[in-house]
Amino acid sequence: MALTADQTVEMLRAAGEATRLRILTLLADEELSVMELSRVLEQSQPRVSRHLKLMAEAGLIERFPDGARVFYRLSSDRIARRLAETVLDGLQDEDAERDHRRLEAVRREREAEAQAY
Questions:
Q1: pLDDT exceeds cutoff 90 at 41
Q2: FRET partner for 45 with CA separation of 20 to 30 A, picked from 9, 19, 39, 68?
Q3: How many domains does the chain have?
Q4: How far is residue 6's CA from residue 28's CA, in Å, rounded to a whole number?
Q5: What is this structure's pTM?
Q6: Alpha-carbon distance 30 to 72, whole Å?
Q7: Residue 2 has what DSSP assignment?
Q8: 56-112 pLDDT, tens per residue?
Q9: What stretch of H or E contains 69?
């Protein structure tokens, strides 16, 4: 399925903010919950949720429940995903390295929680 000009503009607008680009970068690596994203980005849950809502409405990301938690990932739509990956491909962001270090801490905590069960 091809995107209309309006859909493409909506997706680009949804991606066109620094925090949203950081979120897309993280979601390109793995599925994350709102709380995990909040911790990595060091931003409030309501603020992160607002960014996620805008990107989900534009079709850039998908929301899916897993038990009591809700996770987000890049869209499974081939064209939407390719658009997100193209935007991210040219991105060089100073925050990305710090975000990925914090993401590693979240991964370790997630693994520790899984082993505790």
A1: yes
A2: 9
A3: 1
A4: 24
A5: 0.90
A6: 9
A7: P
A8: 999 999 999 988 889 999 999 999 999 999 999 988 777 788 998 999 999 999 899
A9: strand 69-74
Q: Are 33 and 70 in contact (CB under 8 A)?
A: yes
Range of the domain at 108: 5-116
CATH classification at residue 40: 1.10.10.10
Structure-token match 């520790």, residue found: 112
Q: Strand, helix or coil at 61?
A: strand
* Distance (Å, whole) CA 103 – CA 55: 20
Separation between Cα atoms, residue 88 and residue 81, nearest integer Å: 11
Element at 5 (helix H, strand E): helix 5-15
86: helix, coil or strand? helix
